[in-house]
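Researcher: Let's continue the batch. This sequence belongs to DUF1684 domain-containing protein, and it's 271 residues. Same format as the previous ones, please.
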Amino acid sequence: MTTTITTDSGTAAADSFAADWEKWHHARKQTLGMPGGWLSINRLEWLDTEPGRFDELPGSWWYEGSVAHLAPSKDETFSARQFELHPTGPGEVVDVDGHHIEVARRGDGYLIRVHDDSAPTIRDFRGVPAYPADRSWAIDARFERYPEPEPVTVGAVAEGLAHVYVSPGVLVIEHGGDEHRLVAFNGKDGGLSVLFTDETSGVTTYAANRSLAVDASDETIRDGGAVTVDFNRAVNLPCAFIDFATCPLPPAGNHLPFAVHSGEKTPYERG
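Model: Same format as before. Here are the structure tokens for DUF1684 domain-containing protein:
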């Protein structure tokens, strides 16, 4: 006698969705805990327009206009260096006399951050708490493109600092019968990026912000159209883990007036 086993397609799809999320969440944890990453930063210093030194760090540092400078003193043997970076772009890490120093341009100035793989934040890292995967939080949405990309100025967790990003348009999502509009920025790999808060912010999730990458084709970004906003993959920015970040705050209006019980929660160390 042959026994036929039937599998409920909805259950199978949910299991597959959860398995994909678990794989992504594990990779996220591994990336955060890597040596040389955000968690290894244990010091931040702002450069002045005149050469200056910082305790226990090599060289003299300063910036002039859009260029930062590092110069050795008479008893130091490394070569002088210059850095010309984008105001909101990634930093550049250099090794100077055994120190791993990241140079970054933010606002009208420059900063340096020191990376140390023995920093408590990386030594004691236990992963990232998160809500269980829930397919109902992968919400169908539409992207509405602006006639022309618009610069958007947002605040930062660093007092007195502002960031300027280019927004190609807004994401429109529906929840509880209401539409909500989120200003989107250009993201990695040709997609979109959204900074937001919601009614869990400061309760179970990090108060200042969370970030969400949204897959979108070139055609969708150019012409507008349907996308999926998967809040299960909402992540904390570096400022949720360390005190030496300059993360942007969400644009005005990017607060969702309901609780998004999905994505990463407040890190254990900040709880």
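Researcher: Any comment?
Model: DSSP finds three helices and 13 strands in the chain.
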